[in-house]
Amino acid sequence: MSERFNQAAAEWDKGDMRQNIAHAVFQTISNRISLLNTMHIMDFGAGTGLLSFKIAQMVQSVVGVDLSEKMLEQLESKNTDTLRVEAICQNICEVPLEKQFHGIVSSMAMHHVEHTADLFRAFHKHLKRDGFIAIADLEAEDGTFHSHGNEGVHHFGFERETLRKTIEDAGFEHVRFHHAHTIEKETQNYPIFLVTASKKS
């Protein structure tokens, strides 16, 4: 899977679709979560940093985690003296980071992770007390979203109530779903949700 993303990295930000998704997800997060300048945030599946740098303007620090080295190279190329995101290429489900965060955000990465329950358990481990998650992905779809085919796609979106149980079983509470965006394609529309929750005290 990371090989496909490595090959796509240089062109990833071109076109409006991914830019629009990142903007909509950021707006939905900032409307639902109080992002403070004291916070340390992880962006899971950060890619080229489309969401990371928007979040970084609001908080103390952002760590962008991804499995694609080339995607993270694109992210690092956007760092400036005044706005920086740290890039880490690591599978946090297998090798946790040696740090915890006030919150974890993610946009359109979860459907590429095979074991969703393991992912949310990993999120739980990486959060400080009362930390939050804000995770955006596709509502359940029929497998037609990815025009390149479904290599590396483990889920055709998510059913909300099934995902709610997975999140709660991992140790989260106050699970809430919000509509974030709709991707309009020629033959079909694909809604994107944002799910927020907090780590149980």
Number of helices: 6
What fraction strand?
25-35%
Intertermini distance: 36 Å
Query: How many E strands?
Result: 7
Q: Which shape, going by the Cα principal axes?
A: globular
Give the topology string: H per helix, E per strand: HHEHEHEEHEHEE
Mean pLDDT metric? 92
The profile of the biggest β sheet is: 7 strands, mixed
Structural class: alpha/beta
Helix fraction, binned, reads 25-40%
**How would you write the strand order of the largest sheet?**
3-2-1-4-5-7-6
Q: Write down the Rg.
A: 16 Å
Unreliable runs: none
How would you describe the overall organization of this protein?
The mean pLDDT is 92. This protein has helices spanning 2-8, 17-32, 52-56, 69-77, 116-125, 160-169; strands at residues 40-44, 61-66, 86-89, 101-107, 127-138, 172-184, 189-199. The protein is built from 6 helices and 7 strands, in the order H-H-E-H-E-H-E-E-H-E-H-E-E. The chain starts with a helix and ends with a strand. It has 201 residues and is an alpha/beta fold.
How is this fold's topology laid out?
Elements: H1 2-8, H2 17-32, E1 40-44, H3 52-56, E2 61-66, H4 69-77, E3 86-89, E4 101-107, H5 116-125, E5 127-138, H6 160-169, E6 172-184, E7 189-199
Parallel strand pairs: 1-2, 1-4, 2-3, 4-5
Antiparallel strand pairs: 5-7, 6-7
Helix pairs in contact: 5-6
Task: Supply the key terms.
28% helix; 7 strands; seven-stranded mixed β-sheet; single chain; 201 residues
